[in-house]
Design brief:
4-stranded antiparallel beta sheet, about 550 residues, Arylsulfatase, C-terminal domain, Alkaline Phosphatase, subunit A, alpha/beta, 3 domains
């Protein structure tokens, strides 16, 4: 596939730019393959999507969607099957990745409290070491990323349709679909702006598949006609767990919004009247969640979306009143998967554009490529959407890395690695000394196939409660075989899961006499981890007090 060269012209504050004005010309670069120097330091492309469940990557699980381009990274490099996060929520995860520190130390424990901008982030160190640095897409917090030479980033969560961007030269709106645009900007920088005499560290950061899920119109049409297998735990009753799972507000049927999430127009909901469940709408400044997103589209774009939306609404009117509870759950699950997976299809297509460009130019030979997500996500498992819990679907995250001549193609690794390790790994690969206060470990020995990994268990801590989805505060220790969890605010409950015997985590065996010695051992190891990572009951209380002081409790 030829590579596109794009040029940003007249970037002015709040000026709307049509995508067609960015595209200057189309150049097939396969016949103009550049001579790539074997730098002492490799280029690095860090690719991160938002809320991309490992279950929705066919290299991990192939019953939902085919992702041939993401899979290319696994085929040409290494797939990690036990990669996980320290705190399964967007901004805190990103802060941990940037700083190599747990969220209680970098300050970003949740999506509410500000990031401590005095933190040293790995892009700063790359920039100081002579790397070119760039970031395109979603950062989530801040509007001037430190250590980044060139950037266009989405403000906050960003939008799928005709998104706004923060740039070094002012804010702008670009007409088009966000996943395509982020890729356009990335390829433009590679083609036109980078200095070929210097190594680069490029962050290619997708909004998708974050809620609310708006696929590009062609993917919307295609995926709205599909049906997907239902997870075995879709109708989980939580009998085998404590109060946290029972009280969380992330059930697909009861908590997923009809307009914001399922594309049911507000007027359809009003028309349905008494047969509609009492699920409050999601609003922004008085604008219904459906129209807050739909109204970003121009008339031409709406003309593409409307027939599919009308079809969904007509089906809803016809069948919803007579559906049983189980049928309603299955209907909403299918709507969820159709839109969620439709956004991922565009990620995979666009990643293919980038991989093709790198191969055609020869840049792939001296470039490490990392694909990950800021955390996992529930795709109907336990009846849920969203993340936050220490349970597998949100705790685990995809991690695939390729680096020609350094990583054996098609290799797999099942060690307990975390997003805490990313900063030190990238710095190690580039030969840059990591600060002493970073808390992760370099994955470089694992990437080289060396037997030099001693970590047996990882530490997790979630804070954002009470808040959206109402997942209680908890921390825990996780090894390949066991998961011990302590829910500690407004309850005092412990849970233990045998990950080998109970991979779906349905049966809390904390009080089972057969696990008494295991509980005792894990509690000691958990105490040691909290000391190692400088976490404590004192800090727990301080963060609770911050919530109380802000009126959130």
């Amino acid at each position: 596939m030829g590579s596109f060269i794009y040029k940003m012209i007249n970037l002015k504050k709040t000026k709307s730019i049509c995508l067609s004005s960015i595209i200057i010309f189309l150049m097939g670069c396969g016949s103009q393959k550049e001579t790539v120097k074997k730098y002492a330091r490799p280029n690095i492309i860090f690719i991160m999507s938002d809320d991309h469940a490992y279950q929705a990557i066919s290299a991990y699980q192939d019953n939902l969607i085919a992702t041939p381009n993401i899979d290319r990274i696994a085929e040409q490099g290494m797939l990690f099957s036990n990669a996980c996060v320290t705190n399964s929520i967007c901004a805190p995860s990103r802060a941990t990745i940037l700083t190599g520190k747990h969220t209680h130390l970098n300050g970003k424990i949740d999506n509410r409290l500000p990031f401590d901008t005095t933190n040293i982030t790995f892009p700063i160190l790359f920039q100081q070491a002579g790397y070119q640095t760039a970031m395109f897409g979603k950062l989530h917090f801040g509007n001037n990323p430190k250590g980044i030479d060139d950037f266009l980033i989405l403000p906050g969560q960003g939008n799928y349709i005709n998104p706004d961007f923060i740039t070094p030269r002012g804010d702008t709106t670009i007409i088009g679909y966000v996943t395509d645009i982020i890729t356009d900007l990335t390829l433009s920088w590679l083609n036109q702006k980078r200095d070929p005499e210097k190594p680069f560290m490029l962050m290619y950061m997708h909004k998708a598949p974050h809620r609310p899920w708006w696929p590009r119109a062609d993917k919307f049409k295609e995926y709205s006609k599909m049906n997907f297998p239902v997870p075995s735990t879709l109708f989980d009753d939580y009998k085998g767990r404590g109060s946290a799972a029972k009280k969380a507000e992330m059930n697909v049927l009861y908590d997923m919004k009809y307009g914001h999430d399922s594309k049911i127009r507000p007027e359809t909901i009003v028309e349905m009247g008494s047969v509609m469940p009492k699920v409050p709408p999601m609003n922004w400044d008085g604008v219904d969640g459906f129209y807050q997103n739909y109204n970003r589209a121009n008339d031409e774009q709406k003309a593409l979306y409307d027939p599919i939306i009308d079809s969904i609404n007509n089906e809803f009117r016809k069948y919803w009143p007579s559906m049983s509870r189980e049928e309603k759950m299955r209907w909403k699950y299918q709507r969820y998967m159709q839109d969620y997976l439709g956004t991922i299809a565009s990620i995979d297509d666009n990643l293919g554009r980038l991989l093709d460009y790198l191969k055609e130019t020869g840049l792939d030979q001296n470039t490490m490529i990392i694909y990950t997500s800021d955390q996992g996500f529930y795709l109907g498992e336990h009846g849920w959407f969203d993340k936050r819990f220490i349970y597998n679907e949100s705790f685990k995250t995809p991690l695939l890395i390729k680096w020609p001549e350094h990583i054996a193609p098609g290799s797999k690794n099942d060690e307990m690695v975390q997003n805490l390790d990313f900063a030190q790994t990238l710095l190690d690969v580039a030969g840059i000394k990591a600060p002493m206060d970073m808390q992760g470990e370099s994955l470089l020995p694992l990437l080289r196939g060396e037997d030099k990994w001693n970590r047996e268990a990882v530490y997790y801590h979630y804070y954002e409660y009470p808040a959206v989805h109402m997942v209680k505060r908890h921390y825990g220790i996780i090894s390949k075989t066991y998961k011990l969890v302590h829910f500690y605010y407004d309850v005092d409950e412990w849970e233990l899961y045998d990950r080998m015997k109970d991979p779906s985590e349905l049966n809390n065996v904390y009080k089972d006499p057969a696990y008494t010695s295991i509980v005792a051992r894990l509690k000691l190891e958990l105490k040691d981890l909290r000391i190692k990572y400088q976490d404590s009951e004192v800090l727990d209380q301080q963060f609770i007090d911050v919530y109380r002081d802000n009126g959130w409790l």
